Amino acid sequence: MNILMAALSILAVLPATVNSREELVSRVDGGQTLRMVVQSGRSQIVDATWSPDGRHVVTAEGYSPPRVWEASTGAQLLRVVGFADEAGYASHVRYSPGGQWIVATIENEDGPDFTVKMWSAFRGEQLQLYEDGKGPLSASFSPGDSRVVTAALDERPRVWDLKTKKEVLRLVGNTADANPSFAVYSPDGSRILTGSESGHAEIWDARTGQRLQKVALEDDIVTGACYSKDGSKAAIEFGASESVVIIDATTGKKLHQLMVDDGAERTWQGSFHPSDKLFLTLCSDQSIRLWSTETGRELHRLGFAGDVTAAQFSPAGDRIVAVANGSVFVWDYIAANPPHQFSVPADVYTATFSPDGGKILVSCEDETARVFDANTRQELARYEGHSFQVSSATFSRQCDRLLTTSWHLPREPISALQPNQVGELGGLGHIWDLAQAREVIRLVGHEGPITSGEFSPDGQLVVTCGWEGSTRLWDARSGREVRKLIEFDRTYSSSFSSNSRLMVTAQSTNSNLWDTSSQSALRSFPDDLGMNASAILAPDGRSLLIIYGDGSSKMYDTQSGRVLFGIDGLSDEENATCASFEPNGRTIAIGTSSGRVRMITAGTGSQVSVLQPHSTAVRAIAFTREGKRLVTVTAAEVVVWD
Question: What's this model's pTM, rounded to 2 decimal places?
Fold first, then answer.
């Protein structure tokens, strides 16, 4: 059985294996985001959706009866009755707005291609409206579940009173178009939206049956529609082109058409986020895509390892339920806001959040470090005075200072330098006072470029790594060099444990684990790491991720030194380029040469999701202290994920 976990905002999947035939899981490997996984032992689940209160999930299971599950525990609550006697295949399932009814689309073996059947969400008993037994092709309930509008073969849509089970209204109009194949209520119950094979959609007054608007969109079969939560927008789905059009639900004006850029893939089956700012579609390339309803732009692409047959936002918008490979997956949260992209007028090397998550600090090729507001994207400060590109920049934990590192090249000819200036030919570290907006300490001593630098989490030390084969520890307040740690080759990166007691460094020949109190080496990881390798220590210091120069990566146990696992999920055309642990240590975000960000379970190495923020290689990646935001960087752009 396949298992999925999600890690951030908007997330995708690779499978792991579970031995049991049918299993419900509330937690996997300590992960905080996975709430339920369901797979039927008799037949594959093909669709799933939320109850209006977000407490339950109902599943469609082909030739097996639809079932209701508790979303928090995975306990089965209900199986509808009377389904086994019906010849048909349940392909789609929905709750009514009031949560009283379950509605399923049945693909028939005999008679009409499709019918819709309805059952009580509490008892599982079928609701019978059509005496001839043919049933409708679609059904949509009014708010409060007092009425239902149905569309059936060879007749106009009909509105039924659910107390009396009598027809109270028929949407006739004066059109010669083919009879609508679906009908859906607006959120306030005042309007009904219908669509037909002619490519037209029609908007009706739900009380009088008067046609208010006829919307001519595409010369294509209209296969479905849904309203935004506030009813101001509607999405129309088309069968042949399998694209989605967003319209103004009052005027019928076309706002945006959601189609993939290359035209090779198709997108369909939409769902509005409760904020109405996002729209979710499935795509034939095994992905879920999120679109801006304000611009029509694709914002997120969540790649899956298998076919995705259904996905929908939860009523609160903080979770998504999805069906892939016959299993149901539920996550605790997803990004409700589009990512923020920052325009920086220079190539960017690194980016990191301030401790409070409100600011972003970037290091740039144009000899500057810049601070941006993480929400407004406004540039707040610029730190100049470097004589070469800034290789790294980071905030102190107390957010009162920042550190920048660079390779110092004096602007004067070497022959013109004074003797006391010759030592500045190597890399320099600069400590800046944020309140005074000026440099207060200069770290001099490296004999080559400084590749990276950072404050220890307790704010006592600064570490800098140099090409000449040394890692230097400095007193963060005075700038005094505390210790020179001798390495034997170019040192590319360093990383502290959250308590500042351990530090790891990575050079081309090996990686070393250090005790920061005694400044002594505790263990060496002797693999040949290669050029531009990096080592990232887990927050608890118990494990270590090494990214090798060839783009491969491994997780090590820091106490025993043994390899725990290799990181899976990278394609043949991409390499790992950078990584960051989530502050709780459960998830690792790995940037790749393809521009993807792969979310990895720190305990097992299995991939839980894929983000596609960039089209070029990711240079740096970092979480906020709370783990609620992620910043990713390429040479040309900085993107923040909520």
Answer: 0.55
